[in-house]
Each structure stands twice: as C-alpha cells, then as structure tokens.
Amino acid sequence: MRHPALITGLCLALAAPLAMAAAPPKADPPAAAPAAAPAVQPEAVAALEKMGKYLRSLKDFTVHADTTIELVMEDGQKLQFPGTLDYKVRAPDKLQLDLHSDRKERQMFYDGKSLTVYGPKAKYYATVDAPPTIRELLGTVESTYGIEMPLADLFLWGTDQAPTSALKSAARIGPARIDGTVTDQYAFRQEGVDWQVWIEAGPKPLPRRLVITTTDDPAQPQYASTLTWNTAAGLKDSAFTFTPPKDSHRIQMVAVDVVAVEEKSP
Amino acid sequence: MSIRNLTLLGIGLGLFAGTTALMSVSFDVEAGPHARGGARTSVNHASAPRGGGGGGARAANANRGGNANVNRNANVNHNVNRNTNVNRNTNINRDVNIHNDIDIDVDNGWNHGWDDHPIATAAAVTTAVAVTSAVIGSIVYSVPPSCVTSVVNGVAYQQCGSTWYEPQYAGTTVQYVVVNPPG
Q: Helix or strand or coil: residue B89?
C-alpha cells in the first residue's frame, strides 16, 4: 500500500514543477509576438529583387571587396584570413578578377572565348576554352574546375539561379551606414546559409556589404565582404585580355573528376 | 599511422635511398592546424540547375571540406627510380593531405590556391613532398627549393635532381605531377 501512495506523492511532486514550468509560456504571448511575424517578409524579398534587377542593369563596372574568410580547423577552431578582390566586368561576356590575400594571389581573365588563370608569383598560367557569357562561365568554373567564384551572387541575383523561393526567412533589420553610405540591412536564411546584405538606399540599390554564414558546418564559418563600386568604369578590351608576362609559362588546367559528387552524401 | 611515424619513415627512406629529394620529407608536417572546411563565398551556386524552384540552389558543389581526403595518386607506382619501399607510403597519404589544406595556400612563400576557397582546391590530392617523389604520376603541392625550371618542348617542368615534375592548375591551385624525364 505504501507504494501507490509514494508513487502518487512523487507524481504530485513532479507534476507541480512541471505545471509551473508550463505556465510561463501562457503568460508570455506579448513577448512572443515578434516571432509571429512572417518568416519571409515581402518587403525584404522586394528589396532583394530590386537590387538584383539593378545589378542586371549594370553593363560596365568595377567592384572592390575587402573580405575575410574563416576556415574551420578539425578541432572546431576557426581561423580568419583577410583579403581583397577586384572584379572588372563588362556584361554579358567579359570579366577580370584579381584576388589578393596575405597568402595568395591569382588573376583571372575572361574575354567571352577563353578563361586564363594566372599566378603572378609562380608565373604559371593556364588557358581553357570558355562559354560565351559570364553566367555560363561561373557555372563552368564551378562544375568543371571546382572553383567557387567568390561573390558569384553579384552575377546571379536577379536571375533564376538565385530564386527567392529558396528563402526560408527574409527580414529587414534596419538602416545602417557602410563607409558613410546609408544602407538598409537585411537578413535571410536559406538551406546551408544564413546571410545578410546591406543595400544602398536611394536610386542605386547596390549591395555594399555581404556576410555569409555557412550553417551546415556546426562551427558556422563566415565570409564577410565590404564592397566599393564604380558603376560606370569605362573599361577597355585590354582589361580582359591576358598577355603572358615575360618568364611566365603556360601549363595545363585539369578538370575536377567525380570527387565532389561522390562526397555529397556524407 | 601517425604523422610522426610518417616523418620518421620518410627520413629513413631518404637515408636509405640516399637522395636529397627524399630527405626533404622532414619538413614540419606536424606544425600547422588542419582545416576541415571553410565558409562559402556565395549564397547561390552558379552551377545550380536553372529554373529549379523551391530551395534548389545548392547543387553539384555542395561539399567543401571533404575534398581533402581523396587519394587518387599513390597507386600509380611503377617504381621507376627508387626502391620498392616507396609503396608503403601510400598508407599515410591521408594524414599528409589534411596538412595540405593549410600549406596549399602557400607557394614558395605564398601563392597556392584560390584566395577564397582553399579547401576545395585540395581536391584530388597528394602526398608529402618527397615521400613518393619518385612515383610517376603522384602529385605534390610544392617542390624542394633547389628545383629549377626547365622548359622542354614548350612544357615547363621543375627538375629536382633526377626527378621531374610537371606543374598544372587544379582549379587555381598549382600542383606538380611527377613525370618521367622528358626526352
């Protein structure tokens, strides 16, 4: 007979704190209200689409980016590496990219017919045939040569390769200044990434800062870039043509094999 | 097998083979931290299928850090130049590959790899500089500083004693493939 009583007592003892614990949420609706806001705010999506449309209207521009990238060590520690990159672009079929960091330098030249990758220190260059547009080029370098073009989004926003249907949440955070320019900060979530973009206010809705958090690694490494634009650069053809410097050597570029595909599963 | 053992094995082989190339394996394999992955540098993937709605933005290149562990090189051994012991080294490629995630960024002081995607450039890797330097077809990310550039029939090689390497870009990373001496 003692046992039922004991159990009942225990149940009561357990139930009381549970009941108390369960109570606060009921008392909390006002505090929880902000979370009830739409996960995808139409206002934020509209701003993204407006930016993409404006980017697609640019035909001749340069953009400089001050960047930091984080690498995750095997023990979870993150290391950060600063760098810069400079795109020279003439839509739809010419592009030149300079990458600099304290560890690496590379140049890339694309003239609508071929792509050349050059390492100024080792003085090796490789030239391969390339598709006729920048957008196709980006896909090729990624799928054929295993190169994730940094800030490829600049060329993809406003196209069907950056579908807003992929957004799991979208929110306007508020105004912010980037290098003295008034912007609006927005936050988005997609599969594998949380990201933020600061869009210039006014008639030129340019992305002025972009932060991408990779969420499919528990350490969540970030890539951050602050962008400086020249939307009427007046670029010459020579900007996109690679002329081998003296003492440089042409070497082969090998295509990636099926490795990346095999490794998707784990 | 631990990296430390690799180093010792490499030195042992170096002494046994009596070549300076093999000796150079004693570079500090244990020094650097090992990267497992890095941040994405774009929200969207350029190679994603077009018109695919519904969050299909991640396509072919979803993977990054895992690239580092693929050994496609080691078993090409024809034992052209060296002793048969070299075969044993295939066991430890994995350790060395991981190390390359960091060192890959530095060519002779700084130049390997795509600035913003050093991990993916570690795909289809390699082994320590000189452990299998004699194995035709093996791939390394750097060559000993004593090597010289030799252009034969318009192809640039790195000649390191009797061992010849042909540089090539894998992505934007320069890697060196051990080749037979060009004729």
A: helix
Helix (H, G, I), strand (E, B) or coil at B8: helix
> How many residues are present in chain B?
183
Residue B98 in tokens: 């991981």
Q: What is the pLDDT of residues A131-160, one digit of tens each?
A: 999 999 999 999 999 888 999 999 999 999
* Residue in B46, B66, B118 nearest the CB of A152: B46
> Taking CB atoms and an 8 Å limit, are B39 and A155 in contact across chains?
no
Beta-sheet pairing, B35-38 with A60-73: antiparallel
Q: Answer whether A66's CB lies under 8 Å from A84's CB.
A: yes
Of B40, B70, B108, the CB nearest to A212: B40
> Which residues in chain A have their CB less than 8 angstroms from residue B50's CB?
160-161
The pair of structure tokens assigned to A69 is 């990238």
Q: What is the reported pTM? A: 0.69
CA of A112 vs chain B CAs: smallest distance (Å): 17
The ipTM of this complex is 0.80
Sign of CA dihedral A68, A69, A74, A75: positive
